[in-house]
């Protein structure tokens, strides 16, 4: 009688234990697997045309559907870099004016979790960013190495200058030491960037000390005439700013990302204007696509996420989206906007290309992260099952479900 009573008590206890253990398999503590809502949607939803991003609260600054205009391959989307900070790898930041590059540059020297953080002394603009245990820099940027290749050096300048400068700084032979240079940059909506540059020039900025080196020389005054007389262009009206044909603010992002040697540098007589624009745009797209990483000013959180996924580095503090810029406060008519878009037609097309590629890279990485997390949870469940299997077998035996239990009762 007592044995029967014990078995009756044991059955519900064992059932509860089985349920608790099973719940841990299906619903790990760090997952949202068992968070149910009647209107819940997953992060990704498969359509016949591929993966399209579903609008979620975490992605409120993404459109509910990315319209596909360009044919990107998986190789274009997968930009993971095995960045060896202890070796000879160098991260090179191409800083385009008025794209939020100053803020991003500060993130690079002050906000990354590193084994040996950059040494930023109070009151000094530059920081020392050495590799762990070595007095060599892993970062080439305004806030680490200064304007070593010229003020706001472009792709044409950096690719020819950076290897020489870095080998000279670290006293290494270019023949004996093959470095990996990982180029990164930031882009911005062309109209907002243009207006921001105008306001900056209006306050006295000139960037006239920029070298604009191409094929071993700077442009002549005839090739790149000044837009103003005197020391600067302070107080320039927007109409005058737009009227200067040699204003480098026009299509600045394409010019700074393209290989200028393909069109004779700043010599406008080598090819027609139409052909020049076509070649520069194609070059800028190719260089941007093949860069290790680029971010968009309008998507700060996604820029942070993609940088961390690309380089395997983590930021200490989250990026902040700031929309109240000087450019945002400028009121312009539709006619003026059309004129700015016309002056920056190449930048407009480049940004459209860059934005879709950026959002698809974000989408691709979120999908991949989702798979990685599911695989991790599956492995954890497998591990828990292996750990619990002997315990469950013992419970079954004590409950009379095993041969040992029946043998004991028969005696």
Automatic annotation (TrEMBL):
It is an enzyme of class 2 (transferase). Keywords: Glycoprotein, Membrane, Signal-anchor, Transferase, Transmembrane, Transmembrane helix. It is a single-pass type II membrane protein. It comes from the Eukaryota. It catalyses: alpha-D-glucosaminyl-[heparan sulfate](n) + 3'-phosphoadenylyl sulfate = 6-sulfo-alpha-D-glucosaminyl-[heparan sulfate](n) + adenosine 3',5'-bisphosphate + H(+). Its main location: membrane. The chain crosses the membrane at residues 7-26. Pfam families: Sulfotransfer_2. The keyword Cell cycle does not apply. GO terms for molecular function: heparan sulfate 6-sulfotransferase activity. Its EC number is 2.8.2.-. One of its GO terms (cellular component) is membrane. It is found in: Membrane. InterPro entries: Heparan_SO4-6-sulfoTrfase, P-loop_NTPase, Sulfotransferase. 6-O-sulfation enzyme which catalyzes the transfer of sulfate from 3'-phosphoadenosine 5'-phosphosulfate (PAPS) to position 6 of the N-sulfoglucosamine residue (GlcNS) of heparan sulfate. Belongs to the sulfotransferase 6 family. This is Heparan-sulfate 6-O-sulfotransferase. It comes from Perca fluviatilis (European perch).
